[in-house]
Write a structure and sequence with these properties.
Layout lengths: L6 H6 L7 H5 L1 H12 L3 H4 L4 H16 L5 H14 L2 H10 L4 H26 L2 H6 L1 H24 L6 H8 L6 H12 L4 H5 L2 H11 L5 H6 L4 H27 L1 H7 L8 E3 L6 E3 L8 E3 L4 E2 L4 E2 L9 E3 L14 H9 L5 E10 L8 E9 L14 E5 L9 E5 L1 H14 L3 E4 L7 E8 L5 E9 L7 E8 L4 E2 L4 E4 L5 E4 L9 E3 L18 E2 L6 E5 L6 E2 L8 E12 L9 E12 L6 E2 L5 E5 L5 E3 L4 E11 L2 H5 L17 E9 L4 E8 L15 E7 L4 E9 L5 E5 L2 E4 H14 L3 E3 L4 E3 L4 E10 L4 E11 L11 E7 L6 E7 L53 E4 L2 E4 L4 H31 L1
Parallel strand pairs: 17-39
Antiparallel strand pairs: 1-2, 3-6, 4-5, 7-8, 8-9, 9-10, 11-12, 12-13, 13-14, 14-15, 14-16, 18-38, 19-29, 20-22, 21-22, 22-27, 23-24, 23-26, 23-28, 25-27, 28-29, 30-31, 31-32, 32-33, 34-36, 35-36, 36-37, 37-38, 40-41
Length: 909
């Protein structure tokens, strides 16, 4: 009966742990008493000493044992009874009556005791599961008991002792069974009654371990193999023989009492490191609650464990020396991630994956078989061929299997499978609706020849099945992968091509080019002919919009104007500019409006007043802030270079005005024509483009449908992925509900609610595939529904995806469409004037002065005045008349020279 030592008892009773079995085990107490009372026999009779040395070893082994075992106690009782008669041998030795036959019996007794000690030592090294399920153990104990019975009978016969009733009881009784042995026999009877079939069936062994709350790992199956017990007993027997030889002299010289301090254990107990808690342990100290750990790995991001809300361990079990997948523990998953998350750790031979198409609660079933190349990325390559089998997803909250097999493991498993006929490696669920599994493939001889992996989702009618042939002698793939079954939702080839409706677009079709080129033919305009200046724009285009700043209330127009003093050189007629200002208007308006306040700034140029000498020029850089309308301000648009929001519909003209010191004004008109932002265009690789134009903002609202090179992505709509799984879910939903126009749920709101788009999948339920995407663009939430005017409804064929059943066609079945264009208000385009003649002014050219003031006969005409309606000639002195004629001639010459100079200057420009 198991003693079941707990964690708390271990620390408290560590000093007296060896004595606890003595209290609970009368057989061990009797053996200790016999050993103590006969300690001097070995000194007196040297050939008897080995038996007592071996008895001391057995006593030490049983003292360290964690449980009292009926079979070990039975052997110990038989040994104690036999050895208790050795004082008679000493008496006969002292009297000289000891016969040679008795010595021969004692020698056979020493061998029998050595066999019993070796059996107990090997038995105690086994795991609790192997002790109960191994047939060899029962046979070995029965054989050992028979050998001891024969030796005891021969010893008593040689000593001429009549067989007592106690001897009859010992020799006639069978090797007893304790509660754990009875439980093992009951379990075997329940599962067919064949111990050999059970001990080679890993799943049955695991089931027994769970029933009896025992630790189960890969070493258990090795302990249950044929010949393991015999091999262990042989090894221990050799070790015992060495111990007896090494300690025999000390036993003879000092007696067996001194031997108690000198004899070591048969083998120092090995220490292991637990893979679950990463602490050291020994087999003797292992028990059902010895190990404490977390089921989930530590999350460094949340600084917590996913399995519970505390840092303290939440699970308790046996210590385990090897990684396993019998139940989840936190340190297991980083090991799996170190293999699965890299491409250089495994060579995948065969894998199957099937994903549920249910929108909620859908799971992925998967299984794979391949070769493990290294334990960590960039680590050392494994020298021994190792097969990796994985079933399910390794998460602490799910059922999974992740295990490796070396050549030795495969040989052992082949024996197990051959006896048990159980080929299942692991299965995630007993349900036939959804599961993943891995199975061994057996030849007729029972030898493993391959692995079959299967995956089936609850939405698939058939599973994915692949068979990977394996060479058991090399641990390598021995042939091509066989595709036994195809699962998932497979489509059919349409009998004819699909024909889609035409794209419908409601709204104007705009251009992204300027209305026209900006005019540059405006001339300088002065109020008085006396202000002889010429003003010209220096920049191209004449006006630059929002060159250095943007605003939601103004558009800033910048310009550079050169001002030229057109007076003759040497005329001593400078022009003094006292001030500058600006005014603006839009094409179609009659009057200019002043740029008010600080809206006008001269950015570069001398400060006013500024004097310009004749035939000299000065350059002015100025900025005029053109206010937007209240409606435009509400749009909260901030545009930068080179576009003015206020002039997007009509060209803008800014009049730059200079005022001289005498109050005379000269001005020049500069024009700005809006250039829209370039519209998006459909590219060559695009599958489709859908758009509508917005005339108020002069913009194009467009999305494109593009192909994708990824195996799990069919296309992208406005950059959003449309995945194969998503389309398969659409088809499954259509088959289930009968609705064939399904929302893809990938639409977007654009431009802060100014417009939006949505997309639908059109399902052909006959061919079981999505054959087209339907896309709707329309104005968004920022536009009231009663004012919406623009929209676009279009179609595009869906690229081929997934696996179609080869060679099978079906007639096409078009979707029943319910989505239509939303109600729209009629759009009445606004006509804006492109040009006007308000600023089409040309300066008046004065007539050339006459070259002479004389009359036709050479005599200057005489001035006259009117008197009573009659012209009365004035009497001008001859000297004055001559001087006036001379002035006329000189002025004519000057006028001719100026005309030639102006013509030359204009030709140069």
């Amino acid at each position: 009966m198991s003693t079941g030592v707990t964690r708390s008892q271990t620390s408290i009773g560590a000093a007296s742990n060896a004595m606890e079995p003595v209290v609970n085990n009368p057989a061990l107490s009797t053996a200790i008493e016999v050993f103590s009372s006969l300690s001097d026999v070995g000194k007196a009779i040297p050939f008897v000493a080995p038996a007592f040395i071996l008895l001391k070893i057995i006593i030490d082994i049983e003292r360290r044992a964690q449980d009292v075992d009926a079979k070990c106690n039975d052997i110990l009782d038989r040994l104690t009874f036999m050895l208790s008669h050795l004082p008679i041998v000493r008496k006969m030795h002292d009297e000289g009556t000891l016969m040679q036959a008795t010595k021969q019996v004692v020698e056979r007794m020493n061998e029998a005791v050595k066999g019993a000690a070796a059996l107990i030592a090997a038995y105690r090294k086994q795991s609790p599961i192997a002790r109960r399920l191994s047939i060899s153990n029962r046979e070995k104990f029965s054989t050992c008991a028979d050998a001891l019975n024969v030796c005891c009978s021969d010893l008593l016969l040689s000593l001429q002792i009549r067989q007592s009733q106690q001897l009859d009881a010992l020799t006639n009784r069978a090797v007893p069974l304790d509660d754990e042995d009875q439980a093992a026999m009951t379990f075997v009877e329940t599962h067919g009654g064949d111990f050999e079939a059970v001990q080679y069936d890993r799943e049955l062994v695991k089931e027994f371990a769970e029933e009896r709350h025992m630790a189960m790992d890969d070493s258990v199956m090795g302990e249950l193999e044929d010949g393991v017990v015999a091999e262990a007993v042989g090894q221990v027997s050799q070790r015992l023989e060495t111990i007896v030889k090494d300690n025999l002299a000390a036993a003879i010289a000092g007696g067996l009492k001194d031997l108690a301090a000198g004899v070591t254990t048969v083998q120092q107990e090995q220490s292991f490191v637990c893979v679950q808690c990463e602490l050291s342990f020994t087999r003797s100290s292992n028990h059902p609650t010895a190990c404490s750990y977390h089921k989930a790995p530590y999350d460094s991001w949340s600084k917590s464990y996913g399995c519970c809300d505390t840092a303290h361990p939440c699970q308790y079990s046996f210590h385990r020396e090897k990684h396993h997948c019998d139940y989840p523990y936190g340190t297991f998953f980083p090991r799996v991630w170190g293999i699965n998350n890299y491409v250089d750790t495994t060579d995948d031979w065969a894998s199957v994956t099937d994903t549920s198409l249910e929108e909620e609660g859908g799971t992925t079933e998967k299984a794979s078989v391949g070769q493990l190349l290294r334990w960590k990325s960039r680590g050392e390559h494994l020298k021994t061929p190792t097969i990796l089998i994985s079933v399910g997803t390794a998460r602490w909250s799910e059922r999974y299997y992740f295990n490796t097999f070396t050549l030795e493991d495969l040989q052992n498993i082949s024996k197990s499978v051959r006896h048990s006929k159980r080929t299942l490696i692991f299965r995630t669920s007993p349900s036939e609706d959804a599961y993943a599994s891995a199975e061994w493939i057996l030849a007729v001889s029972g030898k493993i020849t391959g692995v079959r992996v299967t995956a089936k989702a609850n939405t698939s009618s058939t599973p994915f099945i692949r068979v990977c042939p394996i060479d058991l002698s090399t641990g390598q793939k021995s042939g091509d992968i066989l595709a036994i079954s195809e699962g998932g939702l497979r489509s059919y080839v349409p009998a004819i091509p699909y024909v889609l409706p035409e794209t419908v677009r409601v709204g104007p079709e705009l251009k992204d080019t300027p209305l026209r080129a900006a005019r540059k033919d405006f001339k300088t305009r002065t109020i008085s002919p006396g202000l002889r200046v010429i003003m010209r724009s220096v920049n191209e285009p004449p006006l630059a919009a929002n060159a250095h700043m943007g605003s939601t209330r103004f558009d800033y127009m910048n310009a550079t104007v050169s001002v030229f003093n057109n007076n003759a050189p040497g005329s001593n007629l400078p022009i003094t500019i006292a001030a500058a200002k600006a005014a603006f208007r839009y094409i179609g308006e009659k009057e200019y409006k002043d740029v008010e306040g600080e809206g006008f700034k001269v950015l570069e140029g001398a400060q006013f007043p500024l004097t310009i000498d004749p035939r000299q020029s000065v350059t002015f850089k100025f900025q005029a802030a053109i206010p937007r309308t209240e409606e435009d301000v509400k749009k909260d648009i901030r545009w930068w270079n080179p576009r003015a929001f206020c002039a997007r519909h009509r060209p803008l003209r800014v009049k730059f005005i200079l005022e001289d010191i005498e109050g005379e004004e000269a001005s020049l008109v500069l024009e700005y024509v809006f250039k829209p932002f370039p519209f998006s265009e459909k590219k060559e690789d695009d599958l489709a483009a859908f758009w509508f134009d917005e005339p108020d903002m002069i913009s194009r609202n467009m999305i494109t449908v593009t192909p994708d090179d990824s195996s799990d992505v069919v296309a992208r709509i406005d950059g959003q992925e449309v995945k194969v799984k998503q389309l398969q879910q659409m088809v499954y939903k259509a088959l289930k509900t009968g609705k064939t126009e399904l929302d893809l749920e990938i639409g977007r709101e654009k431009g802060y609610g100014e417009w939006e788009w949505k997309a639908w999948a059109l399902v052909d339920i006959s061919c079981r595939r999505v054959y087209a995407f339907k896309v709707l663009l329309h104005e968004g939430r920022s536009v009231p529904e009663e004012k919406r005017r623009f929209a676009c409804l279009g179609y595009v064929l869906c690229p081929d995806y997934g696996d179609a059943i080869p060679g099978k066609t079906r007639p096409v079945s078009y979707a029943t469409e319910t989505v239509r264009l939303p109600p729209l208000q009629p759009y009445v385009p606004v006509e804006y004037p492109a040009d006007d003649k308000v600023d089409d002014w040309k300066p008046v050219v004065p007539p050339k002065p006459s070259r002479t003031l004389s009359s036709g006969n050479g005599v200057p005409p005489s001035p006259s005045v009117m008197s009573n309606g009659t012209a009365v000639p004035l009497q001008i002195p001859d000297e004055l008349n001559t001087r006036l004629a001379s002035l006329d001639v000189n002025l004519g010459r000057i006028a001719d020279a100026l005309e030639q100079l102006v013509g030359a200057l204009q030709a140069r420009r």
